[in-house]
Structures are given as C-alpha cells and as structure tokens.
Amino acid sequence: MKLDTKFSTIYISSEIQKILTEILQNFKNRKIFVIVDENTKTNCLPVIKNIEGIKNSKIIELESGESNKGIKSLEKVWSSLTENGADRSSMLINLGGGIIGDLGGFAASTFKRGIDFINIPTTLLSQVDASIGGKTGVNFLGLKNELGVFNHPKYVIIDSSFNRTLKKEHISSGWAEMLKHALIFNEKDWDNLISNNIKQIGFKELNLLIARSVSIKNHFVEKDPFEKDIRKALNFGHTFGHAFESLFMNTTNEISHGEAVAHGMICELYLSGSFCDFSTNKIDTMVSYLLKTYNKLKLNDADFEKIIDLIGHDKKNEGLNINFTLLEDFGKIKINQNCKRELLIETLNWYKNL
Ligand SMILES: NC(=O)c1ccc[n+]([C@@H]2O[C@H](COP(=O)([O-])OP(=O)(O)OC[C@H]3O[C@@H](n4cnc5c(N)ncnc54)[C@H](O)[C@@H]3O)[C@@H](O)[C@H]2O)c1
Q1: Which of 18, 43, 153, 233 fits 165 for a cystine, CB–CB 3.0-4.6 Å?
Q2: What is the pLDDT along the chain (354 residues), one digit of tens a residue?
Q3: Measured from the CB, is residue 177 less than 6 Å from ligand 1?
Q4: 34: Cβ–Cβ under 8 A, 6 or more apart, which residues?
Q5: Does the global pTM surpass 0.90?
Q6: Ligand 1 and 66: CB distance under 6 A
Q7: Between 2.40.50.140, 3.40.190.10, 3.40.50.1970, 3.40.50.300, what CATH number should domain 2-165 receive?
Q8: Listed residue (349, 258, 348, 326) closest to 295, CA to CA
Q9: Of residues 183, 240, 187, 257, the one with CA closest to residue 217
C-alpha cells in the first residue's frame, strides 16, 4: 500500500526490498548512510544490506536506549557524515525504532542545512507513530526531546515483519498508540481494532491495521502540522501517561511508553466522562478492555501528589489548572480542556479503586 501524503510518501508493504531498490535507483550517484543500533544491526540490517545502493553505503552504529538519544550520538552521526564526504545530495536512512528515527531525522535536518532522509521503522510504536508526522529531536540536559525540528522524511517504508524479533513489551507499547488513534477517530475503528488479538496476528493483517493507524495520524498531521490546534488530539492519554512513565522511571516497576499511555487513556476517559459527558457505558467497556490488555498500575496515596506535580511541572506559571485533550465521544475531540487539581485527585482515586 502506498500513501502519498502532503509531506512524505509512505509505503506499508511486505516487499520492502523491492520498494527500497526502486527508490534508491533514483539516488544512484549519491552517498547513502544508514543509522542502526546494535539490535537493528543484528535483526534488521540483514534484510536490506544486499540491496544495490545499500551494499556500498556507510553504516553508522549507535548504542540503543533513551539515554543515548542525545548530543553525543548526534555528534557521532554528524562526524561520520562529514568524515565520509556527505554532501547536500546525500541520503540518510534511519533503520530502527523511534529513537533512531528521531535522532537520525534531526541529524539529517541540520546537516548542511538539511539532507534527505528515509525512515524504516522497526518497532510497532515507530511504525504507527514516531516515523511519521515530522517530529525529530534529541534529549538535552535530562529533558526529553528538548532539541528538535519539524521536518519530514522523504519516504517511510513500513514492514511489520520487522516486529518478529521485538520484545513483547514493545509490541504492546505500539498497540496502545494504535488504540488511541482509533479512539480519537471513530467507534468503527475502535471496534475493528479490538476484534484482533495483537499477540496472534499475522504480519499481513498487521500491515493493514498499521496502514489504517498511519492514515489516522496523518489526517491530524496534515490538518495541523505544527500542533497548534487539532493535532493535539494525538496527545489524548499522554498527560497522565507521561506522568506515569516518569513516576516509574528508574524503578524496578519501569513501564513502557505505550503502557503508560494506556493507563493515561483510562484516566483521561474518566475525565472525558466527568467533563465532556462521554457516555459512561462506552467508557466502562473501553476501560475493561484496557485493563485486560495492560496490567493495572499499583498506585498508593503518596503517589498522587507526585503524579499531580509531574503533570503540572511545566505549567506552574499558569496556576494549578491543567490543560487536557478530552473526548465527547469517539472522534469528538475537545482540546484545551482546563481541569482543576481536585478533579485530577478524584480521577486517581477512581483509578485506584477500579
Ligand atoms: N517523533 C515522534 O512523533 C515520536 C512519537 C512517539 C515516540 N517517539 C520517540 O520514540 C522513542 C521510542 O521509540 P521505540 O518505542 O520504538 O523505542 P526504541 O527506539 O528504543 O526501540 C526499542 C528497543 O527495541 C530495539 N529494536 C528496534 N527494532 C527492533 C527489532 N525489529 N527487533 C529487535 N529489537 C529491536 C531497539 O534497539 C531498542 O532497544 C522515544 O524516544 C520517543 O520520544 C517519537
């Protein structure tokens, strides 16, 4: 399947070798660079390394992990480009999950004021989310995605069979973002998605679900590329989600981004019921699916203050009310909903007693 968007051409296919070969024919006399980490070097590079155009490319290997998504790795990429004679016509291929995509996209966007890049996402999360939409960047001074630019890859090539070697938690992490896309779009998409069992699904069927998820994300990106307005719909579940992710970070109970977002969605569904009259029956059904799919987080009363602090961290100057993206119903989005602290505590109490 081919999706020609305003910003990139996106392929979702099990014929990645054929597609990449065809694309690279148009880049014959140009230098090609491929970024990998130790996991994608072993598990994903063999799929493309014999393709004409990749055979003689320069492979740049970075260390995996969020702590390596920073200036040091960025410098390594820029140095390698310079030392190996990259020029403005060179092409950078990001073969990896969201970290390689974000970092490689930023490196390409800033090298000689911008060179072309291709994303080949190899995790479910990056296939449905990180590889599209044009957000690139790195962490800085302990702050996530503190440096970055909006800039889109020329091509995105998605093949869900890369997920064959992914750890289970990375599959369920991506699944949460797919659920979010369905929820903010319409009920039919939600019903269709949950009729599938992500643990048993074949790669051909998964490619179809990914294609749908990508086109939903693209719908919001094209309407509002710089996230000033309706693109904020994609943040549903992420305000509580980011706080949960931070709360458990560096503990023995660390959770993935998607798992945190799944529980964030549960809380923000509750807020949507209280604040925007989203039907309680529908909410109950969704919450029960989410709790069946993602183990409930163990929260105690002492965590509540920490969570509220984490949520309000960068909004202190706006007083104690926090802005959320909420829903009136499937696909009926209400951005910039200002919730009081008391309602957030009520939400956490409700979650704890589920
Ligand atoms: N740009 C965006 O719009 C956007 C959206 C969501 C998330 N993100 C970013 O994405 C990052 C998270 O991405 P992620 O969840 O893909 O994590 P990741 O890139 O860290 O990948 C997860 C792990 O899986 C390994 N891996 C990757 N592909 C593999 C494969 N096919 N087989 C085996 N192992 C493989 C990686 O080496 C890594 O250890 C975060 O930094 C987040 O900020 C960006």
Answers
A1: 43
A2: 999 999 999 999 999 999 999 999 999 889 999 999 999 999 999 999 999 999 999 999 999 999 999 999 999 999 999 999 999 999 999 999 999 999 999 999 999 999 999 999 999 999 999 999 999 999 998 888 899 999 999 999 999 999 999 999 999 999 999 999 999 999 999 999 999 998 888 888 999 999 999 999 999 999 999 999 999 999 999 999 999 998 998 888 889 999 999 999 999 999 999 999 999 999 999 999 999 999 999 998 999 999 998 998 645 434 556 889 999 999 999 999 999 889 999 999 999 999
A3: no
A4: 45, 48, 54, 57, 58, 59, 60, 92, 93, 95
A5: yes
A6: yes
A7: 3.40.50.1970
A8: 258
A9: 183
CATH class in words for 170-352 = mainly alpha
Q: Which residue reads 């529908």 in tokens? A: 282
Q: Whose CA is nearest to atom 9 of ligand 1?
A: 98
Distance of CA 7 to the CA centre of its chain: 17
Q: CATH 1.20.1090.10 spans which residues of the chain? A: 170-352
C-beta 122 within 6 A of ligand 1: yes
- 3 state DSSP class of 302: helix
Q: Which atom of ligand 1 is nearest to the CA of 99?
A: 19
Gap between the Cα atoms of 260 and 242, Å rounded = 7
For residue 13 and ligand 1, the question of a CB distance below 6 A is answered with no
Q: What is the DSSP string of 87-100?
A: -TT-EEEEEESHHH
